[in-house]
Each structure stands twice: as structure tokens, then as C-alpha cells.
Amino acid sequence: MESRVKDPSLASRGREQLYWAERNMPVLMEIRRRFEKEKPLVGQTVAACLHVTKETGVLVRTLAAGGARVVLVPSNPLSTQDDVAAALAEEGIHVYAWRGMSEREYYNAIGFAISFYPTITLDDGADLTATIHKLWHGVKDESLNYVAETAGGVDVEKLVAGLRGGTEETTTGVIRLRALKKAGKLVYPIIAVNDSYTKYLFDNRYGTGQSTWDGVLRATNLLIAGKVVVVAGYGWVGRGVAMRARGLGARRVIVVEADPIRALEAVFDGFEVMPMDKAAEVGDIFITATGNVRVINLGHIFKMRDGAVLANTGHFNVEIDVAGLERVATAKRRIRPYLDEYTLPGGKRVYLIAEGRLVNLAAAEGHPSEVMDMSFANQALAAEYLVKNKLAPDVYKLPDELDREVARLKLKTMGIEIEEMTEEQRQYLSSWTLGT
Known about the structure:
It is an enzyme of class 3 (hydrolase). It comes from Pyrobaculum calidifontis (strain DSM 21063 / JCM 11548 / VA1). Keywords: Cytoplasm, Hydrolase, NAD, One-carbon metabolism. This protein has 436 residues and is of the alpha/beta class. The chain has 2 domains: 4-199 and 367-413, Adenosylhomocysteinase-like (Rossmann fold); 206-362, NAD(P)-binding Rossmann-like Domain (Rossmann fold, 3-Layer(aba) Sandwich), CATH 3.40.50. It is 47% helix and 15% strand. The strands form 2 sheets. It has an 8-stranded parallel sheet with strand order 1-4-3-2-5-6-7-16, sandwiched between helices. Strands 10-9-8-11-12-15-14-13 form an 8-stranded mixed sheet, covered by helices on one side. Helix 10 crosses helix 11. The longest helix is centred in the middle third of the chain and has 24 residues, at 197-220.
């Protein structure tokens, strides 16, 4: 099977989407022009388990321009843009993705990627990487039955032996991979692209901050001004969501945070901080951004006001207890695309956006192209770095010089010049003898 998409006839519309993304991703396009000349990825098979969006399309086109054979599968069942998937498949990218996949179809897609025996994996949430490790370590998991339906009789030893390394795009995935390393079970090197400054300082804060609210507004069309917004988690994503809530005119922005340093930062940034038990009683809109499980549980939901809106912008759909909500609700109905109304015992209603999945990609289009320009430039450079350097199994940060190169290119494409240090200043900073 070369590709499987929802509707190949959508390809022309997908090409227009890709054109628009390329117009707004100048850093990645500059890297593509170099890749076209140097072909640093010739002989490599890249399996990308990423959100299948127009921005991802620009990345995989760049990898293909560098000489790689590319396989693209989704990292979320609800985030695929079907027109983009169709366009990429038409161009020769091996795509197995469509919006609204079942769990079985989702893991079929991961099996499809594995069947190509990739030499490099690009991941967002670590599902592809974790699946390879489950196969290697003989873990019993129902999802592997679905993987086997498309991976067939994959030779796991051959698969792992051929892997030069992988990358990880998001905080949740990096947490999983560091746990894998700590357990002594990581079998190939991973570059934590998420830890690059030009990724998390901009993508997580400005990208997710804007696109989360884009998803909430498309799903509900509510006025944010005057509302009480509760943000669970004050990492870089939570910071961005809280900042944009304030900018949209929220009457109160409450942060729920378990880490005392982050909680203190939220206070100093001008936000209220309290436990979810208390925030549940006063919030109008709740957004989770922690990477943890059941941050909003049934006890919290029963305390909420009639009409409370719940959304998740963490990677996996575990932060809100959706299963518990399904179990106790006396009625459920879909009243708008991506918005479900649940009636609780006693008649109170709460509204869940996008089934508790990643709201910015399930109910909107994900991050703006301008910010993904930096994130995916890091991905492209990380793939090249893995080809040029043989690394031992570990979780690595992309070298700082590559991170700074992405920032330099971004400033250049924005027409912004920065200061340059003099030789005297460089010597001063490198000397221990100079002082007062």
C-alpha cells in the first residue's frame, strides 16, 4: 500500500493550503533550498508521526527535497487535514491518515509507518517511538494487535538495527522518553526538539496560546470578555493560554498548578492561583495544559456551574475524565461541531470541546505557520544531525548552535538586525582575569 487518505480528490485544495503555509515559513524554505542542493538525507527513510497539517506538509516536503523517503502518519486521530493528506499522497509521500480515525485505524497507521523500516523517526507524543520499544521489549498491549495488521511480520531486530535515531516534538512525549531512558529501556537515540529554545519559548507559548483559543472560539463562539477562565498548568503552554485569556478580556484568569515555583511565577505574573477544587466552583471555561491524567475529575465536574465549558490543550485526552463523564451523564448530545453537551444528575449541564482531545488541532488548524516555521526547522536540522552523527541511545537536546541558527534565520527573514559583539567584548566574556 502506497498511501491511504480519505479523499484523493481534495489534493488541489491541499496544494493551496501548502502554498499558503510555505509563504509563511521562510526559515524552513531556506533550509529546503539548501537540502535540495546538498541532499543530506539520501538513503534515509523518515517515518513522521505528526499532526497531518499544512505546516507538517511543508516539513515533509523539505525532508523529501533532502533525499529522504518519507512516510507520514498522524499523532492524533482528530487532527488530520484531509486535503493536505491528499496533496502529499499525490506527490509521492507515503501517507496513512484521515480525520476521525478510530483507535484501531490510528494504530494501523503506526504499523504502516513501521512496515517501511524507517531509519529516522519523527514523533509528537512518542506513540511511534513507544510502539517500536514495546515490540522490542515484548510488551503485551492491545494496540500492538492493530499495529500488526499493517506492519505484518516486521523483523523487530532488523527494524531497531537500522534506526539512526529519532526526534520528539512535544513535552508529553519527552516525559515518556525520559521515563523510558530512566528505566534502562531506550534502544535508540532521541533528540528532544521540544527542548530547543526556538521551539518551546515560541511554539508552546505563542503558538498554543493563540491556537487554543482559536479552537475554543470555533467550537463555541462564546465571548471571552467577562468570563472566569481556569488554566490547569503553568508550563510554557499554560503561560500562553493564560496570557491570551487576559488579552481577550477575561474577567478573572485562575491558574491551577502543583509546582510551587511555577505557581509563584503565575502569582508574580498577575494571575490568581488556587487548587482545582476551589477553581471548579467559580470557573466558566476550563483549559487543561499539564500532560497529566485526570487533572479535572468527576468531583471537580460536579462542583462546576451550569454551562461550564471544558477543553484540553495537553497532548493526550487523559487530562479531563471523559470516561467518567460519559458514565455518569444522564444525557449527551452534540450541539455544534466539536461541542458535546452532557447533562449531569440533577439537571446541570457541562460542555466538552473536541471529546477532550487536543483542542487547537481537533477544533481548529493548530499553530500558525509562522511559529511552526521554527519548530519544524528544528525537526529538519535534527534529522540532518542524526545522519551526520552516530549517537548512543539517550535523550539529547539539539545543539545550541543549531538552535541559534534557527533564531538567526528567523530574524533575517523578518528583516530584523541585531547587535554584534566587538572582539573586546568577546574576550571579556571569555576571560576570568578581567573584572573590576
